[in-house]
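User: quick one, fold this
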Amino acid sequence: MLYWILGFGKSYKFRCIQYRNLGYRHNQRYNLVNVKLKWVKDNVLDTVVTGERELRAAWVIVSTIAADPGSCLPIYRLSGRRRCQLGLPQDLKVSTFMRRYPNIFDEFHVPDSGGTLVPWFRLTPDVTRLNQEAIAVFRQNQKDFLDRLCKLLMLTKDLILPLPTIDQLKWDLGLPYDYVDSFIPNYKDVFSLIRLPDDRVALKLISHPNELAVSQLEMNALLQQKEEDVIAGRLGFRVGFPRGYGLKRKSIKWLEEWQRLPYTSPYSDSSHLDSRTDVSEKRIVGVFHELLHLTVQKKTERQNVSNLRKPLNLPQKFTKVFERHPGIFYISKKNNTQTVVLREAYDRHQLVHKHPISEIRDRFACLMKEGFLDRSRGLYKQDTATSLGEDESHMFEAESCENEFESEEESEAHMFSEYESDETTHRS
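Assistant:
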């Protein structure tokens, strides 16, 4: 019954024709209405973005060190070609960044052939245990991550994405930093690595179950027993605005009419849609609604989707839908970038449905904050020749800061403050 409702099996052709005709009729009636809703700062959703870049950078470094056979690396191995994976500002040295968190990175020195002391880093026991938990969580949820990657490729018209494009989204999808070597080879019957005409390597989806071609919006409607709306394509998005947000009567009327327009699944053919209409725009909103649902924390940086226009068959300036629909998407301007957050996924600053890997990241962020504050209070020795890992690590409960809500000023005052200069350390 479920497959019939969603258009699989014998009725799939009928559903496509039905949607095609609906889309054609509405294309002739609905042009792209020139309405632009104002952007309003949302301090609550800004907190879910603050510090994300530092968290991601620290986690990549942890994963890199943990993957080394000796579980320790010299600084030049971390700040060379791998630096581009960290996303840190160019004026911030990797060593400076790592020294901010002495309860995560244990620094020691080894003389090179000329007798010069070279900084090396290894992981502290606390973060080693947390990394092992993260690996276990990934293994336990491997099918979930497989489905996320499959659905990402299913959104594309050719079931293909270049690896650099996937790399931009791998943190958001919850994939390990070395997923090409540690994850993809386990599914040779699902994925294939191919060479594109421009000589880039891409990932191609060669097989997938049909039941994955169901968007989250369709699934939510079915769970609410709205089968008729799914069949007819009458699906609307959940919309919410921050307190005090004022909508003009003209905007309210447009939004109500827009919600009643036909919904085109992001997994179905959209070549019949005219990009100059609101019907096409609703399809674009649906694509990004689904894409954000594929991420574990329902958000991603706007620049991460900049290379998806052609693979997703989107028109020029497709990211304008984020500004046009602030009730569905929130654009946070924290961290000197723009991050798109799916509003419906959050109850204030907490995810409505938290993925197990998100809980690991929350605990890791808590550990980073604790180390930064303790270092600021002078609880760690400045002499890096003494192994910082020998100091007792402070025990902590993840709940103590997982649910902590801070003001914008407080959030920027500690572990996400201005960058400090990198000081040269000497052995006494």
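User: anything notable?
Assistant: Confidence is low (pLDDT under 50) at residues 1-28, 383-428.
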